[in-house]
Amino acid sequence: MSSKPMNRDAYLRFHENFCNASRALSAQKNNDYAGKDGEEPFANFTRVEALGICSTEQGFLVRLTDKLSRLSTLAAGGKLQVSDETAEDTLKDVVNYAILLAAYMADTANTKLPPKAPNVEWVTASGSLNTPDQSW
Question: Cβ contacts of residue 110 below 8 Å, gap of 6+?
């Protein structure tokens, strides 16, 4: 029995769930890397610049490249040897590194919040219609 292809509503539910899971993972990992006080959420990235290795931005890109290399190995039909990190875990890391970099860039430009989302509606995981809060 073949399953029906994902439609837009199913994709948006998947997107919401994947982003929520990625955010929860980011909170846990950021506590480990930046400390529980949360004063330096970019500490493990700014540290590479402080050590004279590369710029903070390049540090983000190095970590993203590591994750993309891992996904490239998997896509080429290779078997991943680290069994406690799934492809889904790696994709969540990519999402989180991209958001961390965007937040770092916003922070260094003194613009703390992203631009407002366009006025769109979507169906939540529970099936109800939702409109994003435009108040930031």
Answer: none
For the segment 28-40, the average pLDDT, to the nearest whole number, is 85
Give CA–CA dist 41/19, Å, rounded. 18
Q: Which 3 state secondary structure label does DSSP give 17?
A: helix
How far is 27 from 96, CA to CA, in rounded Å?
Answer: 10
Contacts of 52 (CB under 8 A, 6+ apart): none
H or E stretch covering 105: helix 87-108
Q: What pTM value is reported for the model?
A: 0.76
Domain ranges of the chain: 8-115
